[in-house]
Amino acid sequence: MLGCVGAWPAGELLGLDFETTGIDRFNDVPVSYALVSVVEGVVIRSWSGLIDPGREIPPEATAVHGISTERALDEGMPLRAAISLVSDAVIAASTRGVPLVGMKLDYDLTILETQARDLCGSGPIERGWCGPVLDAVVIDRHFDPDRKGRRTLVDLCAHYGIDIGNAHDASADATAAIEVVFALATRYDALWGCDLERLHNDQIDWHREWTKNYDLWRRAEGMIPIDPRDYVWPVAPVALPAA
What are the structural domains of the chain? Predict the structure, then answer.
């Protein structure tokens, strides 16, 4: 049991997570996926699989998720088939108003959109996907902005008393992200009862404001400014419109 009934947590949610060849969401590709369907706080279905990315998986990526090039080649489904499968699931959920839940979903959704356009001819957005999205880290940053320390999924699970199990396994990460969102909804009344469309739009603003402040901090510390595309949530464009 992941949570209690009431408001949107009493409904249906769909968790999503990719493990990938690297951290560049515009050029790296998935090596595994997981989709987790939850109704009234209970996991009713979880499906996942390895993906053959069609390229070498760097050793540093394998060190994180444990998926080698050889294993992905032997056991993985073709990349195009995996992208099509996940796109169909995400679009079907959006059509029914089911929120997509995850951790830093602007990474996963940007990969999905980019790869779907390249491999399948059209991305989820062109096919009608419009959310809503519940992003664990975006929500956590807004409701507890002054908390010190890192906010990776492992860190959020530790903070909210959640056992993530096998971190960096797509199924474990997708389920853990859902549990974090339930923990947040239980802790903050304004989140529990919030309209999903409003909450989706609020996260766009929350993410943009956090990114602005983070960029200002980086510049003040003499660090490289962030990529302007990082301001856009939940799906970043490959190229920004001309000013």
Answer: 8-231 (3.30.420.10)
